[in-house]
Structures are given as C-alpha cells and as structure tokens.
C-alpha cells in the first residue's frame, strides 16, 4: 500500500469503504508509435505533453499551427505505469470513470479492450471487475486516441448525408466534417481561432473499487429548485413555496428501501431544513425524491440587483445494508429565471409596445435587461484553463456591469467549478448545447449520442442559480431559413425539429422545471407550448410572422465601415444576442505570438493569425481583405497614424482599430438599450465576443491573456445603469439626445448640456426650442425615466442651422452629463468624424499616485483642451485592469483611475512603464 501511495492518491472512509483512485497521480507516457514518446499527464492533450517535453514549440506562436499539423493527424496512446494497490475478488467491483475523453478513444486495461468513446462531452463509466483479475502483474491502462480530423471524414463517407455543407469549412480556415463528431467544433477552426483538433484525456479520471457493503458511487446529480407548479419557459407564481427535487445517478446496487435524506444549511452553518425526501422513485441507476421548502429563504440575485446568498445542500442515500451513506453535497441558490416568449399583452399594448411576443428574461418575477457578451473557449487546449483564468474572466465581466454571459455553442460545456464562480459573482450564464450554425445528421446513432450528452450535462449543472437558459445551439434556426439552406426543404427542416425540438427538448424538460429551453439562439419563438407533445414547442419561424409584429432576437454583423454609425441600419428586435466588429490585439499581445520584425498589417504572420476572411480562395489574400475591413474603417473615421518607427506605428494602428471597435460597440449598445423605451421593447444586448482563444484579430473585448481592449471599457461605460446618448442622423441632420435606465424603479434627474470647441472654449450655439440657456451657454434639462425605459431629452431638428455658420462643426463638441438615481454618466458628441475634426492638443498630464497593496492609482488631467479616447496602457511585467479607461476629458477636467493588480513580477517597477495616449497622438505624429 505504501508503494501504491507513491503513484496514486485515494480516499477511504473506513476499511470496507469504497476506494477512489485519482488517475492524475499515475505516471503516464504518450506515444504516437512512430517518432514521439514523451511523459504525459492527465488531464492533458497530446500537444501539451509534446510541448512540455520540448518536442514542439508553443503551438499558438507564429506558424506553428500549420507546422504542427502532423500532431493532430497522428493517433496518440496514453499508457499508465503499473497501477499498484488495486485489489480484486471477494465481491469487489471495479469501475473506470472518465470525466472527459477527447474524443475518439479505445480504452484498454491490461491489453484487453474495455470500450470505445466518441463523445468529448460525456462522462463514461466502464465495469472492469472481470478484467482486473486476469491482469498479469500490476494492471496497466491505455487510452488510444484517434485523429478526429481524419475520422470524421470516414464517418461522413460511411454514415452521413452525401455532402459536407459549406458551414463545415472553406478557404482553409476550418477543417471539414465537424458535424460528424461530438467534439468541440471550434477545434476545427472558426473565424476567430485556429484549427488544432487536439486529442487526449481532457478531464479527470478515476478508478472506483467498492465492496458489497460499500455505498453506491454517485456519478451525477440533478438538483432542481423551482416554485411549486412551475414549468419551463413559463413565469411561475412567486407566492408559491419552493420545491427541492434531487435526482441521483449512481453505479452499484441500491436496495429498494433506500431513503434520501436532505440537509440544507446557509453560509453561517444554520440549518434551513433537514428532512427525508418524499415521493422516492428508482429506475435504471437513478433515485429521485423531493420536498417542499416552506421556510423563508434569501433569494439569489444577479450582479447589480441584489446579493447572491448560497446554501449548502447535502443529500444522503441511507440504507442499513451500507457501511455508511452515499452522500453528495452541492451549493445551491433559490431563484426563478425564465425566458419569457409569451404574446404581448393588452396591458403592454396600452403602453405602446408593438404586437408580437416578448423576448426577455425574468428573475424572481422581475423583468431584467440583460447586459453582457458572448464567451468562447479561453484557450485552444482546455486542460490548461485553470480556475484563476475563469475567475479573472468573470471578474472582468462583473466589473463591466455585466449580468449575463452567453456560453456559446461549439466550444465546450463549462465545468461545475466555473458555474460555482458565476454563482458567487452573480453572473447569469446563458448555456447552449454544442451545436453551431450547421445541418446535423439525425441518424439513430447520432441521436443516441446527442441525448446522452444533453441528459448528462442538463442534470450536471441544473443546481446552479447562475444557469439562465438552455439553447439547442448557435444560429440554427437562422441557418435553416435565412442563410445557406432552403426553409422548405422538408428533410433539413424535419431533421432540425427531430434533433432540437424533440430529442434535446425532451432531455431538458425531463430534468428541470426551473430552466427555459429554446431550440436555437436565434429564435422567433413558438405558437404553441405543449409539454405532453413529442414536439413541445411549435416554432413560429420567420415566414410565419405577421409583418406588423415583432417576435425575434437579432444577430447582426456589418463590415462596411462607411455605415457603421448609421442607426437606421441596425436591426429592430426584442433582444440582441450577437453583434460586433473585429479589431487588432495590442502590441503587448502580439509580442507573445509573432516576431517583432513582423509588426505590420501586411505581415504573413499577422495574416496567418487572422481568420476573418473574405470569399477569396487564396487564404492570405482573403485574410488581407478581411483586415482591410477595419483599416478602411479607421481611414474613414479617425486621424491616421503615420509614425516613422515601425513598432510605434504598428502600435498606433492596432490601438486605433480598437477605438473604432469600441466606438461601434457603444453606438449599437446604446441603440439597443434605447429600444427598451420604444415599441419593440428591446430587453438585452450581448455583444460578440468577450474573450479570445489565441492572439489574432477578433471581435473580442479582452485578449488571450485577458489584457483589456478599448471596447471592454467602452462597454463598461455604456452598460452603466443610467446613460445618456446622442443619436444623430446625418441624412436628416436630426440630433436626438436620450437618457436610458435599466433600474427597476422610476428615476428622475437632470442633464447638463454645453457646446465647446476642441480647445475647451464655450460656443455660442442656440439651444433647442423651450430650453433656457445659462449665461455660459450651457443648459439643464430635468427628466424622469420609467423602470427599464428611455426618455428623449432634447431634439435638434436641423442641427447645422443651430450653428448659424458661426462655428464649423469640425470644431464643435456637445458635452452632456446626466445625474439620476445616484449615477452619473457623461458623453461627448462630435457632429463631424474625428477624421475631419479640428482636434487640438489636450495637454494631458499623467500623475502616478503610487501603489498601495493590490491597487495603483493615476490622475490624468487635460490642461489645454478636450481629450478624446484617453488611454492608459500597462507593461507585460504586471497583470490587472483599470476601473475606467478610454474616456474623454474636458479642458481642466481631471480623473483618478485605479488599477487592480492581479500579478506583479516587477515589484512595482512597472509603474514607470505605464503609457498615456489619446486620439490626438495620431494627429501630432
């Protein structure tokens, strides 16, 4: 036993208790059987083990994605060292338990085949009780992984439809065949990431041994907390008590008279309820029971709307035949969350809401304006994603006024600990099954995999109060009727409904009363909801809509920079779940990915890391054309950097691309938020995308190392609870200024307006009609905003006439500040683009106030004029984030900025390398 402990750790409650051996503690070897054999780890991917052994370089550096293509085309076998300490006989049963195998794998014990896997997203258990006694010597486990990018093409030929649709790869940026695997689809490439197709045991694995008197081994737990009488997709009666339903999956034998005991305690250790569950049923390795919680509970709220109280729930399976109970402990919260897709009511119509149906989230009976973004895999190799990175990612989100992240399909299902972090932080997670923008086969063996995957993951995460929604996948309905495929192609439509409106829907509705389900992220809702039907939702589809009504969410992209700020071109819907524009990562991130002498936009290295391609069949030409979309936009709207030093020029261009992205995101978010007070009653804005999988031009607002782009701070600013925004229509010369609030209470306040030139001098500009100016030309407008609503403050019906030719609009700015509900928000409006504006030297002065503990402070002052897009950048010797950045300053205005330090490798020396710039630096140079 002492020898075994050197190899594997185990937990044993008593002499006869089950032993759980952690296979992460075993020694492992990874080999392709041809030219590479290296030490391995578990969890891991073959790329990571080859990197650790020095066989390959960093896969995301330079051209290594292509140079290391051979890695994913090989088969890789993980072989354990001798597994000492395992026993057999005497009624012992032995199980192999794999939390995740990526993806096509044959499992062998002592050379004997145990089973085959073909789904990255399932937990697999194998009974090896009969194999273990036949092992000669200490057992050896081997995991033989095939090349997914090769296997899927064979599957396509043998099992799938007679074509690979064009959603499965073109222009060399994506591999074909992703629809034929249950593996992270973005592993085959996407328009923001590479195509590594990794293989390996990507999540933990265990050996479980138990005697007859040992309790069963619990493999999964579904806890569902819902209001009595609640059904998915429907708003519950908030006056009803909560129901606590526990359903436990296990391996082993469970006597029929087993009881389920529940104990719930709060964060202080006080017991909320302790009881035996009633209504117990058992079937096929699952036991289920429930109880009503009549006690008063503290409700869980998303960030910005209240606290996040969490309770500890312990469920024990008690039977006298066991030496001790089998127990499972989960942290839970009490809340209701619904995606309301019901028809617009007469009461709503009376308030001016257009007919159709809602598309809004409700938390504990309150309407919620969803603010946030879309989350993509944070690394190309999941085994190196640790809790610190996810915690920092979520921390950035919450500090940016987010209440929601959409966990995009075609990545991977998040681990439980990620939901735990979201539970603590009050971050709602819109979750999706891993199907994205493609036609998926509905053959029986595929359907079996879909169901097993959906059933397991629905049950696994259902207890988390941060879980907001299950969607069948990404852009599936949109694809069917609006993109590549014909909506009236019966085979395609029938397969879509079979998979997402029948099989996946069944898995969700069978396991939860508390979570809503939609078959696709882009969804026009349903005309009928019948939980007794094989197809519970009768989808409306766009061609069944009334032209006078609104039912849908929006998914919108425009890459013509000339119309980026044309509000009339933005979609009008009930909810915006995707919109965006790519930008370059910072020069600091590029330093991690390409050589410094390749710091120019036409570099082959830069083009290689760009996957936003046009339809040009030549990869590098298509990449250059994709990059030109945002360089052309810069040329239209901003002063152009023309610096002699190539690194400085590259730095300025990458930063200006981020300014355009930030400007564009703010305009769209403001437009969508204003919709909360218009007839479309728009109730959410989730921009694309929050994070990065590697270093390259993408839509992200944070980079691969979590360094923040300008768009991150711009989104934080425009997601303030109360904002002011100028909406200017260049075609009609009409300027409207609106205030928007997502507060749950009516709020009142004042807005202060002041026209100035770029040197900060007040301008003589006539105010709107019925507004009395002060002696300095400023004027104040009082206002009132209803809950989650918008109010128009002023209108300039023909803006140019207000200047009366006295001040050219290239040297005019409107400074607006609103104060309401304890919040202050400011915005500068410039009638001309910054490219054509008479930008003056703002005379920025940076004062470094020093470091105190885990924060540093800076004061920035504009001494000579108005400063646009004031930006602080920190060196690579420190990691963290500012509380504000990318802001504007009026002449004489100062702002104190705080930097939160995550890591400091310089012992404070980084402070001297902090860089300050504004858009004027583009002009000056």
From TrEMBL:
Matches recorded under PANTHER family: BETA-MANNOSIDASE (PTHR43730), BETA-MANNOSIDASE A (PTHR43730:SF5)
Primary location recorded for the protein, binned into one broad class: secreted
Domain (Beta-mannosidase-like galactose-binding): residue spans on this chain: 28-203
Organism: Trichoderma arundinaceum
InterPro entries, per database record: Beta-gal/glucu_dom_sf, Beta-mannosidase-like_N2, Beta-mannosidase_GH2, Beta-mannosidase_Ig, Galactose-bd-like_sf, GH, Ig-like_fold
Listed GO biological process terms: glycoprotein catabolic process
Entry's Gene Ontology molecular function annotations: beta-mannosidase activity
Location relative to the cell: Secreted
Record's signal peptide: 1-17
Pfam families in the cross-refs: Glyco_hydro_2_N2, Ig_mannosidase
This protein's UniProt keywords: Glycoprotein, Glycosidase, Hydrolase, Secreted, Signal
Subunit structure: Homodimer.
Catalytic activity, reaction form: Hydrolysis of terminal, non-reducing beta-D-mannose residues in beta-D-mannosides
SUPFAM superfamilies hit by this protein: (Trans)glycosidases, beta-Galactosidase/glucuronidase domain, Galactose-binding domain-like
Protein name per the record: Beta-mannosidase A
Record bears the keyword Secreted: yes
Keyword Secreted included in the entry's annotation: yes
Annotated GO CC locations: extracellular region
Record-listed E.C. numbers: 3.2.1.25
Enzyme superclass (EC): hydrolase
Domain Beta-mannosidase Ig-fold: 841-922
Source superkingdom: Eukaryota
Family: Belongs to the glycosyl hydrolase 2 family. Beta-mannosidase A subfamily.
């Amino acid at each position: 036993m002492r020898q075994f402990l050197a190899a594997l750790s185990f937990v044993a409650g008593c002499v006869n208790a089950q032993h759980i051996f952690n296979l992460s503690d075993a020694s492992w070897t990874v080999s392709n059987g041809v030219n590479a054999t290296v030490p391995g780890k578990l969890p891991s991917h073959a790329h990571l083990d080859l990197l650790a052994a020095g066989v390959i370089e960093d896969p995301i550096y330079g051209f290594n994605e292509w140079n290391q293509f051979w890695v994913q085309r090989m088969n890789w076998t993980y072989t354990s060292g001798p597994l000492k300490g395992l026993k057999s006989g005497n009624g012992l049963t032995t199980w192999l338990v794999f939390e995740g195998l990526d993806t096509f794998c044959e499992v062998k014990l002592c050379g004997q085949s145990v089973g085959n896997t073909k789904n990255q997203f399932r937990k697999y258990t194998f009974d090896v009780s009969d194999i273990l006694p036949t092992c000669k010597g200490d057992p050896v486990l081997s995991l033989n992984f095939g090349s997914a990018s090769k296997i899927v093409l064979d599957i396509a030929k043998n099992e799938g439809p007679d074509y690979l649709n064009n959603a499965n790869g073109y222009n060399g940026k994506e591999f074909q065949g992703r629809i034929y695997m249950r593996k992270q689809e973005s592993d085959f490439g996407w328009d923001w990431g590479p195509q590594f197709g990794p293989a390996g045991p990507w999540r933990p694995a265990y050996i479980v041994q138990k005697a007859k008197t040992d309790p069963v081994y619990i493999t999964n737990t579904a806890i569902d907390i819902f209001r009595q009488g609640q059904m998915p997709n429907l708003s519950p009666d908030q006056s009803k008590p909560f129901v606590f339903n526990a359903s436990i999956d296990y391996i082993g034998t469970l006597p029929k008279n087993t009881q389920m005991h529940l104990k719930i305690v709060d964060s202080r250790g006080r017991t909320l309820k302790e009881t035996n569950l009633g209504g117990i049923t058992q079937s096929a390795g699952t036991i289920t029971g429930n109880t009503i919680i009549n006690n008063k509970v503290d409700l869980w709220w998303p960030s910005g709307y209240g606290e996040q109280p969490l309770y500890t729930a312990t469920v024990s399976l008690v039977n006298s035949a066991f030496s001790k109970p089998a127990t499972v402990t989960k942290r839970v919260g009490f809340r209701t969350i619904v995606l309301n897709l019901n028809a617009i009511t007469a009461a709503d119509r009376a308030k001016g809401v257009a007919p159709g149906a809602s598309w809004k989230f409700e938390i504990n009976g309150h309407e919620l304006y969803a603010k946030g973004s879309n989350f993509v895999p944070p690394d190309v190799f999941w085994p190196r994603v640790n809790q610190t990175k996810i915690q920092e990612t979520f921390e950035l989100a919450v500090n940016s006024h987010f209440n929601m992240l959409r966990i995009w399909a075609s990545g991977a299902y998040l681990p439980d600990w990620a939901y735990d972090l979201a539970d603590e932080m009050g971050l709602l997670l819109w979750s999706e099954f891993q199907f994205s923008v493609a036609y998926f086969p509905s053959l029986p063996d595929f359907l079996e995999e879909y169901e097993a995957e959906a059933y397991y993951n629905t049950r696994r995460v259902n207890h988390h109060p941060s879980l907001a929604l299950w969607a069948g996948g990404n852009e599936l309905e949109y694809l069917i009727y609006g993109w590549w495929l014909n909506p009236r192609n019966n085979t395609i439509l029938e397969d879509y409904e079979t998979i997402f409106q029948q099989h996946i829907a069944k898995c969700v509705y069978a396991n939860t009363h508390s979570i809503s389900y939609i078959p696709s992220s882009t969804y026009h809702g349903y005309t009928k909801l019948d939980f007794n039907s094989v197809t519970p939702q009768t989808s409306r589809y766009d061609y069944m809509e009334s032209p006078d009504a609104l039912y849908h969410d929006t998914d919108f992209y425009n890459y013509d920079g000339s119309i980026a700020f044309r509000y009339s071109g933005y979609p009008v819907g009930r909810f915006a779940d995707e919109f965006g524009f790519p930008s370059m990562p910072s020069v600091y991130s590029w330093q991690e990915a390409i050589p410094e002498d390749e710091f120019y936009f036409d570099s082959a290295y830069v083009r290689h890391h760009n996957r936003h391609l046009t339809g040009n069949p030549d990869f590098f030409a298509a990449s250059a054309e994709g990059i030109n979309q945002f360089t052309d936009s810069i040329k239209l709207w901003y002063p152009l950097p023309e610096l002699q030093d190539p690194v400085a020029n590259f730095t300025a261009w990458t930063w200006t691309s981020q300014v355009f992205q930030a400007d564009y995101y703010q305009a769209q978010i403001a437009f969508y938020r204003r919709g909360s007070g218009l007839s479309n009653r728009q109730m959410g804005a989730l921009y694309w995308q929050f994070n990065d999988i590697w270093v390259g031009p993408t839509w992200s607002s944070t980079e691969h190392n979590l360094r923040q782009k300008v768009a991150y701070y711009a989104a934080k600013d425009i997601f303030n609870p109360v904002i002011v925004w100028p909406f200017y229509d260049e075609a009609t010369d009409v300027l409207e200024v609106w205030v928007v609030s997502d507060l749950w209470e009516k709020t009142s306040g004042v807005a202060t307006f002041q026209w100035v030139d770029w040197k900060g001098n007040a301008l003589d500009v006539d105010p709107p009609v019925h507004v009395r100016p002060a002696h300095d030309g400023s004027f104040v407008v009082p206002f009132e905003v209803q809950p989650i609503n918008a109010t128009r403050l002023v209108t300039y019906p023909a803006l140019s006439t207000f200047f009366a030719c006295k001040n050219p609009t290239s040297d005019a700015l409107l400074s607006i500040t609103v104060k309401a509900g304890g919040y202050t928000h400011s915005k500068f409006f410039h009638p001309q683009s910054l490219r054509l504006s008479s930008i003056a030297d703002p005379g920025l002065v940076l004062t470094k106030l020093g470091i105190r503990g885990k924060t540093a402070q800076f004061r920035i002052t504009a001494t000579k004029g108005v400063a646009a897009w004031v930006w602080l950048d920190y060196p690579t010797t420190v990691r963290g984030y500012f509380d504000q950045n990318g802001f504007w300053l009026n002449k004489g205005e100062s702002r104190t900025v705080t930097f939160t330090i995550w890591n400091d490798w310089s012992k404070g020396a980084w402070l001297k390398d902090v860089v300050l710039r504004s858009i004027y630096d583009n002009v000056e140079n």
